[in-house]
Structures are given as C-alpha cells and as structure tokens.
Amino acid sequence: MHEFEPSADDFFDELFLGLSQDQKSIPSKFLYDKTGSELFDQICGLDEYYPTRTEMLILRNHVAEICTLFGSDCRLIELGSGSSAKTRVLLDHLHEPAAYVPIDIAGDHLLRSTARLAHVYPQLYITPICADFTDAFTLPQPPYSTKRTVAFFPGSTIGNLKPVEAEKFLRRIATLCGTGGGLLIGVDLKKDRPTLERAYNDARGITAAFNLNLLTRINRSFNAGIRSHQFQHYAFYNEEFRRIEMHLVSLVDQTVQLNGAPFVFGEGEHIITEYSYKYTAQEFANLAARSGWRVKRFWTDAANLFSVQYLEIKCFSKALT
Ligand code: AVI
C-alpha cells in the first residue's frame, strides 16, 4: 500500500463531511501518508496479521495453474502495484506475457519498482500508470498480440470497500479487462473472532499506531492540535455486518478546531476509520456474480484463512451495465 497525498482542500472537505455526521468517520484512504504506509508495511510482517504471508503461500503453491489459466500473450494489469512483490511470483511463471501494466497512486514508488522490474525482466513490455485505481482511468493500447487482459488485485483490499462499492468497482474492472478478461483477486475469509481480532490488535501496537497516525496527519495538515493520547485505537469484528471495524475512541470530552471549525467529541465517542469486510466463498461468489464475474477457480490455505480466486467475465454486456 502506498502513500496517498490528497490536496489539502480535498482532505479538508472529506474530513469535514465525515466528522459532521452523527456517527463520525474518516475515509480509510487517509491512513496512508508516508508514516501510515510504513506502518502498514510493518503490519504485513506481523505474526498476528496472517493475510500477507498466507496469500503469498497460496500464490506460490498454485502459480503454475494460475499462469495456465492466464494463457500465453496475456496483458497483466496490477491494481495498487506497490513494490510488485507478489506479481514477481506470477511474472516468473507467465507464458510469454504480452505486457505488464502496474497501476499505483504513488508515482515515485511506481517508477522505482518499474525500473527494477525492467532490469529483472528485460523482455517484458512494461507500461506503468500513475493513477488512483478506484477512480476512472484508461489503459494504454495493448501491444501487438494480446489475447487477454487479466487484472491482479491482491491483499484483500476489496474488503476495504462496502459491498455496494465493491460491486461497482468489480464492474468497472470487468469493463476495463473486456471480452475474455480475467481477475486474480485476494479475498480474506470469515473465520473465528479471536483470529480476526488479533490481526487488528497486535501485541506490539503497530496497528494502533497506524490508526492513531491519522490524528498526527490531521494535526500536520490543519494545525489542529489534537492530543493523540486522548484517543484510543479500537478494532473489533462486527458479526452482523461481517467486517472488522477500526475506530478511534475519544477518552475525554474535547473540542478540536479544523481550519477554525469546531468539532466536539464526547468522552467515549467513536470515529470509524476503516472497515475490512470478510467473506465466505459463497458470499464472494454472489458479489462477483452481481458484478458480471464468475469464480472459475478458488484456492485457499490448509486453515482456510485466506483465498485467492480467479474470476472470468460472465457476460460482458451485463458487466457494462
Ligand atoms: C489494506 N487492507 C486490506 C488492510 C486490511 O486488512 O483491511 C488494512 C489494514 N488495516 C489494519 N490492518 C491492516
């Protein structure tokens, strides 16, 4: 996950809107400034945070079959490519890929990792795109012999979207990939509450620091003078909505000024900072079907913690509507 640096106006507008509701919230994309992105990288290596290593294990175990499904002359696009670490597992095994299109919002990282990849895979046609993949963007013309466009969306980032948003997003990706297209996606699975809650409440407090860093970012952007120690990280599994919820809880009654606008927080009041939806295989298959996709293959690990799924476009005309 890489740095997200919005304009101060956009940040303020979204913050103002989120904090003006009865249930206060801040969009989770703002968690990823430089410090937030570094903390997230640390989270990925934590014992309690099973998704990253489990997804890598599944990819390694099934890469031959995955690449057979992609076929030869496929154009691989990666949504939120970062360092492209997981993609390298694929690139090492792909049959004569036509092109690789890494898409990431962080231009510097994108150029650096593209240069590294070009060195390791000198034959590979790489066309990086600096864009927010949740917004509309266009793909460059595919090179001569592209048989299929496959999108790669690892990490269960799909879980950070509400199901209606996820459906819209998956439809857009179907349109982007076009006829015969595919999607290789990492999806975190529903499991026992203790395992889920441990993953978002690690013993070293890295996830807490990641969440509280939002307040530091707000202070830096708006000179808000929020005292971070007067808020507490809180993450729990909401069974009814099948999602981990990350909150910041005000420990005292306090008023915070944002560009002169006062926001009042009562003692014990919660700000929602992130949702992370968890799916069963069937629930995700239903979401995929509503978005114009069909799950062709589903791989998981021995403990059923995480899944990697290969989706094919079900009916292109439906995907477009
Ligand atoms: C990026 N995303 C898939 C992570 C997740 O698990 O929802 C973000 C995260 N938040 C706290 N820990 C990790």
Brief summary:
The protein has 321 residues and is an alpha/beta fold.
Structure summary, number of beta strands: 12
Distance between the termini: 30 Å
Helicity level, as a percent range?
Answer: 25-40%
Total helical elements: 10
Which H/E pattern describes the elements? Answer: HHHEHEHEEHEHHEEEEEHEEH
Question: Which geometry do the CA atoms define?
Answer: globular
Structural class: alpha/beta
- Going across the major beta sheet, what is the strand order? 3-2-1-4-5-12-11
The overall pLDDT, averaged over residues, is 92
Radius of gyration: 20 Å
Strand content: 15-25%
Key phrases:
binds N,N-dimethyl-L-histidine, 12 strands, alpha/beta
Could you explain the architecture of this structure?
The protein has 321 residues and is of the alpha/beta class. Helix content is 37%, strand content 24%. The chain is built from ten helices and twelve strands. It has helices at residues 8-19, 34-44, 50-70, 85-91, 107-120, 163-177, 193-199, 206-222, 281-290, 316-320; strands at 74-79, 99-104, 129-130, 148-153, 182-188, 231-238, 243-250, 254-258, 261-265, 270-277, 293-300, 306-313. The strands form three sheets. It has a seven-stranded mixed beta sheet with strand order 3-2-1-4-5-12-11, sandwiched between helices. Strands 6-7-10 form a three-stranded antiparallel beta sheet. Helix 6 links the parallel strand 4 and strand 5. Helix 2 (34-44) runs antiparallel to helix 8. The chain starts with 7 loop residues before the first helix and ends with a helix. The mean pLDDT is 92. The structure holds N,N-dimethyl-L-histidine (AVI).
